[in-house]
Amino acid sequence: MLAFTSKEPFTRIDDFVERSFLFITAGTYQKRPFIAGDDRKNMLIESLDFNCYKWGWKLTAYAVLDNHYHLIVRYPGGDVSRLAHIIQSAHSFSAYHWRRDDPSIRTRIWWNFWEAVIKSPESLVEHINYVHENPRYHGLASDPATYQFTSLP
């Protein structure tokens, strides 16, 4: 467990500031299950958390599955290009370690990431629900609260 965290669950609609939240999706190359395994999921979550912390962003919600993940981050203002640094750092770190631990991985691991600005409090709530329901949608849990790799408490 890390001594720092950028995790900040969204709790009040009154806290919503327009254009301060981003929805992010990132996928693996050819949708291969490179993130399968608890250790890989935990490493990715910790790396994303660390990089958000490092740049002053807040990790509001997340779900990590075997071949993709979803995040909602709170943007602190300033240079939005920091998002690319956050994602690239987490992807480089995880790819390095996964290749080191499994020499059979000879392809790229990460494909790309996409982001979208969340423009209203209602949209933020819908996106948070989407993120947390994603493991059920993909058949990984009948109850999202039982899936270990989300930001659900």
Summarize this structure briefly.
With 153 residues, this protein is α+β, with helices and mostly antiparallel strands. It has helices at residues 38-55, 82-101, 121-137, and strands spanning 21-28, 58-64, 68-74, 110-118.
Sketch the major β-sheet. 4 strands, antiparallel
Count of distinct strands? 4
Poorly predicted residue ranges = none
Helix fraction, binned, reads: 25-40%
User: What is the succession of H and E elements?
Assistant: EHEEHEH
Structural class: alpha+beta
Mean pLDDT: 90
Outline:
globular
Quaternary state of this entry equals: single chain
**Proportion of residues in β-strands:** 15-25%
Summed up, the helix count is: 3
Terminal Cα separation, in Å?
Answer: 16 Å
> Which value, in Å, is the CA radius of gyration?
15 Å
Strand order of the largest sheet: 2-3-1-4
Report what the structure shows.
- This protein is of the alpha+beta class and 153 residues long.
- Helices cover 36% and strands 20% of the residues.
- The chain contains 3 helices and 4 strands, in the order βαββαβα.
- Strands 2-3-1-4 form a 4-stranded antiparallel β-sheet, sandwiched between helices.
- Helix 1 (38-55) packs antiparallel against helix 2 (82-101).
- The longest helix is centred in the middle third of the chain and has 20 residues, at 82-101.
- The chain is globular and about 45 Å long.
- The mean pLDDT is 90.
Label this structure with key terms.
153 residues, alpha+beta, four-stranded antiparallel beta sheet, 3 helices, 36% helix
